[in-house]
Structure to design on (597 residues):
């Protein structure tokens, strides 16, 4: 097996949080004597990523996603455990590691607010010590992929969220990092921008072999981009598998959606459960282990007047939400 | 060395260009600084007009102290603004962005905010300094010229060290650090006057604990060619500024400890 591009082994990270007491007297006591509560942000987290993998990293707020990214990017030093990114221990070689990774936060820009986009790019060239030839090549390539040139002279504060995100993605990639951490890259974007960003991430991963770790709450991002999904909760990895396996493990159920010809009808069958109904459309659920899909469909079409019918997997949101419930993550 | 300097220059030009976007604010800011510092000096003039001298120090001598400290402080002021904001940067998470870049955090903070309006203080201090030399009989030997330059540079480094200290504290506490301004701004104010006029405990504190006196008072005595009422030797007066440099290096070291603390606690 080849050396993993990112190796995380039994990483533990605890935080001490000062307890605040309520009221004026409590605040006064807090000044004199603080009480601390220990929180295990990461509790023996382990995983490996191969070069060129694109993995979705999901979990509820406070589960440990951003702590993981902070450890991998060298901001935080863990209490114990082993970690290597492209052969380097991030917290021991912060600067060398930083030169090799790109990080994008959807909620925050790394561009200079008052300056035209191109000036931020130029400054990043100097910060990352990119040779001028390489810089121009990388910049022009990224600009062509995301149509950035018309934005060059616009101050960042005047960009729309979607334009800004495209520029932020480019800014994180000017120094040709081999690893990219994306934190909620599509948050707040309109549908068109979302698609553009997803498309770009996919191409970056496929064509250039950049290893991508994507944290998001948008399950459409996961479905569109990630084959592999890691779920974290309470500081531990709860699941690490392909999206299909995750689905199969959490629930075998399928959805059966039927458009009836006659809206007065009610569908009754011992093998299906009723979920919801709106107008002529009925949502049902069944377990393919108990009843064969083909058999079920022919039975129902024989019994009822049906205009259209299709079978689909439960939406990924539901899968994740069930997984959270299983682990009492709410 | 050349590369960090190039990056710093780039930071400065960026900073200038974004300030130029708000032209009125920039012009008013510079004028405000110039006027503010001018009024401050008028206060000293008024004092001397009333009392004639301060201990055995003439107006021109005090003006020399005042001018030189202001020039050094103006240089610091152009470099140190980022360290005032470490607390905010930590709170907002922007400090993490600095750690994500392959550069030292100190360099990034120095480059973070170059405030052009501080030129007001620089020119005012320089003006007062030049004016005072007209009335002072300074023997401008090469050694004295060199000492003056060293004093300004070491003074600026020392003041920068103080601001780095304040930034470092933000790693441990996010409370407001008003109290610390006593040490920085208060100390800088105090160093605008000859150390000999202060009480012994005050002098000791600002010589031995925080070497404020070393970067201004002692070398300025040597420049003015005045024997020290406190009795220090000329050799000491010439080497004293380097304690300011030492303090700066020490501050960088403590900054690294603070950074280590931040990176292990994440708060």
């Amino acid at each position: 097996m080849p050396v993993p591009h990112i190796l995380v082994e039994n990483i533990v990270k605890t935080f001490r949080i000062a307890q605040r007491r309520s009221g004026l007297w409590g605040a006064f006591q807090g000044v004199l004597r603080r009480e601390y509560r220990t929180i295990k942000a990461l509790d023996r987290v382990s995983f490996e990523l191969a070069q060129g993998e694109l993995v979705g990293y999901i979990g509820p707020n406070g589960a440990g996603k951003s702590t993981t990214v902070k450890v991998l990017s060298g901001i935080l030093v863990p209490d114990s455990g082993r970690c290597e990114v492209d052969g380097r221990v991030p917290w021991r070689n912060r600067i060398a590691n930083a030169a090799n990774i790109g990080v994008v936060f959807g909620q925050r820009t790394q561009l200079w607010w008052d300056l035209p986009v191109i000036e931020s790019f130029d400054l990043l060239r100097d910060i990352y010590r990119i040779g001028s030839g390489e810089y121009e090549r990388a910049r022009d390539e990224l600009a062509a992929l995301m149509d950035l040139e018309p934005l060059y002279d616009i101050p960042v504060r005047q960009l729309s969220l979607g334009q800004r995100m495209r520029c932020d993605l480019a800014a994180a990639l000017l120094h040709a990092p081999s690893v990219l951490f994306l934190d909620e890259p599509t948050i707040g974007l309109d549908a068109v921008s979302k698609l553009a960003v997803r498309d770009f991430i996919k191409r970056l991963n496929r064509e250039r072999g950049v290893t991508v770790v994507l944290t998001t709450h948008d399950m459409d991002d996961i479905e569109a981009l990630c084959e592999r999904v890691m779920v974290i909760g309470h500081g531990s990895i709860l699941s690490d598998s392909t999206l299909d396996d995750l689905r199969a493990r959490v629930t075998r159920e399928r959805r059966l959606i039927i458009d009836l010809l006659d809206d007065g009808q009610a569908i009754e069958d011992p093998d299906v459960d009723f979920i919801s109904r709106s107008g002529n459309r009925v949502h049902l659920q069944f377990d393919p282990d108990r009843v064969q899909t083909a058999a079920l469909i022919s039975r129902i079409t024989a019994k009822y007047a049906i205009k259209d019918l299709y079978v689909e997997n439960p939406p990924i949101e539901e899968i994740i939400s069930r997984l959270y419930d299983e682990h009492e993550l709410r | 060395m050349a590369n960090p300097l190039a990056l710093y220059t780039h930071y400065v030009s960026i900073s200038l260009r974004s300030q130029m976007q708000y032209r009125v604010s920039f012009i008013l800011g510079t004028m405000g600084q110039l006027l503010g510092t001018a009024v401050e000096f008028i206060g000293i003039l008024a004092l001397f007009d009333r009392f004639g001298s301060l201990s055995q120090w003439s107006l021109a001598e005090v003006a020399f102290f005042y001018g030189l400290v202001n020039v050094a402080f103006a240089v610091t002021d152009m470099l140190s603004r980022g360290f005032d904001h470490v607390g905010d940067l930590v709170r907002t998470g922007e400090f993490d962005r600095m750690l994500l870049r392959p550069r030292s955090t100190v360099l990034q903070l120095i480059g973070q905010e170059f405030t052009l309006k501080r030129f007001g203080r620089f020119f005012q201090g320089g003006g007062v300094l030049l004016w005072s030399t007209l009335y002072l009989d300074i023997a401008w030997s090469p050694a004295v010229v060199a000492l003056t330059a060293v004093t300004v540079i070491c003074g600026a480094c020392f003041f920068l060290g103080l601001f780095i200290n304040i930034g470092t504290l933000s790693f441990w506490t996010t409370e407001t650090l008003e109290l610390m301004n006593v040490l920085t701004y208060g100390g800088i104010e105090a160093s605008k006057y000859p150390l000999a006029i202060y009480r012994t405990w005050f002098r000791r504190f600002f010589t031995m604990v925080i070497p404020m006196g070393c970067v201004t008072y002692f070398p300025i005595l040597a420049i003015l060619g005045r024997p020290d009422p406190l009795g220090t030797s000329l050799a000491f007066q010439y080497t004293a500024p380097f304690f300011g440099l030492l303090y700066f290096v020490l501050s960088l070291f403590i900054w690294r400890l603070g950074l280590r603390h931040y990176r292990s606690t994440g708060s």
